[in-house]
Amino acid sequence: MNHPYSPVDQSGVVINGLDIGSIVTEIQSRGYAVVEHFLKDTEIAATRAAFETEVPITQMRAIGTKTGRTWRSHNLLAKTRAADFIFLDSRLRAIIDGVIGKYSQVNITTMFNTLPGETRQDLHQDDGLWPIPRPHPPFLCNVLFAFDDFTKENGATHVVPFSHQWTRAIEQDVESIQVEMPSGSALFWEGSLWHGGGTNRAADEERMGFFISHLVSYMRPSDLQLVSVPRDIARKLPHKLQRLLGYYPFGNGVDGLDPIDTLHDGVVVHPDARTADYWRKQNSDAEK
Ligand SMILES: O=C(O)CCC(=O)C(=O)O
User: Fold this and answer.
1) Which residues of the chain have pLDDT under 50?
2) Of the candidates 198, 215, 232, which is a domain's last residue?
3) Contact assessment for residue 154 and residue 200, using Cβ atoms and an 8 Å cutoff
4) Residues 92 and 33 in one domain
5) Is the C-beta atom of 70 inside 6 A of ligand 1?
6) Is residue 62 within 6 Å of ligand 1 at its C-beta?
7) pLDDT in tens, 83-114
8) Which neighbouring-strand residues pair with 114?
9) According to the model, what pLDDT value does residue 283 have?
10) What pLDDT is stored for residue 1 in this prediction?
């Protein structure tokens, strides 16, 4: 019998006309799969409007670029309710279940907007954050929704097919392909796949995407310390013991903040983050 936390066999499963089993097989074998028309135009428009007005953005630099021309906003589930329906979409859930198991958890939520002039990201592996020797079972499954058309011109994501099975260190000069896809498409990949955003050479086209990373449920304490120890107790513990409970800055922490600061002040949105209109004005002032 399969372990309850293992990937679910989705062969033959079809949801709303989408062949989930084939997509899972494609992700497992090639490392990625594209589903066009995953989101409707109306859904994209509504979510984009919320991302533009409700979601404070930090100008965090993309991996391997120093231009400041990628806007990023993490911690979206704390910032807007506009995308909840996407997380809960039964097709999305079934694909993730098929790749990493049905008790997965949200790892990262990011809205990003790659502006004209952004340079190419380094190829990277999203599961490289964990020092786990390769090959290993898949433990991350990620999806990137295209809000704008992704084209070679505006920097469509580079992927290296089959690289999720490779055990060697990433080579930046390896041949890659750019995944061009129309707005509303979903690009899924297994966390070991070598990939990265491309150069945005377009004169005036932004490339907005919405990224959700899923992690297996079992990479966490069996007694969930962060929830089990009430915060008013945790706040009074020695610093080292707070770290041991899980209040440590791993990855992006809490919107780029140290979780131990959030434990004390409750702040979950980076104080430098501003909504898109602020950054648009900054950019246009800088161009004058
Ligand atoms: O820009 C893209 O298409 C991919 C983004 C990405 O992989 C990242 O920011 O880590």
Assistant:
1) none
2) 215
3) yes
4) yes
5) no
6) yes
7) 999 999 999 999 999 999 999 999 999 999 99
8) 70, 207
9) 75
10) 55
Candidate from 71, 195, 212 with most ligand 1 atoms within 8 A of CB, to mutate: 195
pLDDT at residue number 2 = 82
Atom of ligand 1 nearest to the CA of 126: 10
119 lines ligand 1 (CB under 6 A): no
Strands (E) across the chain are located at: 14-15, 18-19, 32-35, 70-74, 105-114, 140-146, 158-159, 177-178, 186-190, 195-196, 207-215
Locus of tokens 């009074």: 236
Residues 229, 197: one domain? Answer: no
Shared domain check, 68 and 170 = yes
Helical ranges in the chain per DSSP H: 20-30, 41-54, 76-79, 84-88, 90-100, 225-228, 231-234, 239-245, 259-265, 276-287
CA 225 to centroid of ligand 1, rounded, Å: 31
Handedness of CA 259, 261, 266, 267 (dihedral sign): negative
CB of 176 closer than 6 angstroms to any ligand 1 atom: no
pLDDT of residue 237: 98
CA dist 47 and 111 (Å) reads 10
- The answer to whether residue 133 sits within a structural domain is yes
Distance between Cα 3 and ligand 1 center (Å): 32
Distance between Cα 242 and ligand 1 center (Å): 32
- Let me know the angle formed at the C-alpha of 142 by 79 and 181, rounded to the nearest 5 degrees: 95
* Sheet of 140-146, strands arranged across: 32-35, 186-190, 140-146, 207-215, 105-114, 70-74
Taking residue 238's Cβ as centre, other Cβ atoms within 10 Å add up to: 8
